[in-house]
Specification:
137 residues, alpha+beta, 4-stranded antiparallel β-sheet, 3-stranded mixed β-sheet, 5 helices, elongated
Amino acid sequence: MNTTVTGYEPRFDIDLRRGQVGEQQTLNVIDALQQGRVEVKTDYGVGVTGNLYIEFEKQNRQGEWVPSGLGVTESDWWAFAFADGVIFVATETLKRLAREYWRSGHVGQRNGNEHSSASRGVKLPVKDLVANMEPYS
């Protein structure tokens, strides 16, 4: 069996080490949450579109586009909350992928209203986010 492709590892000692890597990553996220270094987003449209909207810019009161969202975050992690789960992604990984989508034209825009500013960002498919997260080596 090709363990590189499937990820299956029947040997307990190797599987244990792999599990401990995931546990440490979870502890890193918990620490970041406790330190306030996680940006939490809730996107109610993702169930319909399959896409997350990642904001880069917003329109200020003078009508100028200024950096915002992912473009100015100081968080180490971003969390995308759903009704029955949360996806955590390292900010640098999200920035890398979002830049690729921005350059390839997956740009989205939200209109402003009396309660919020207009914004521009990328439409990032959740499946692509998960598929492009860096695997452990």
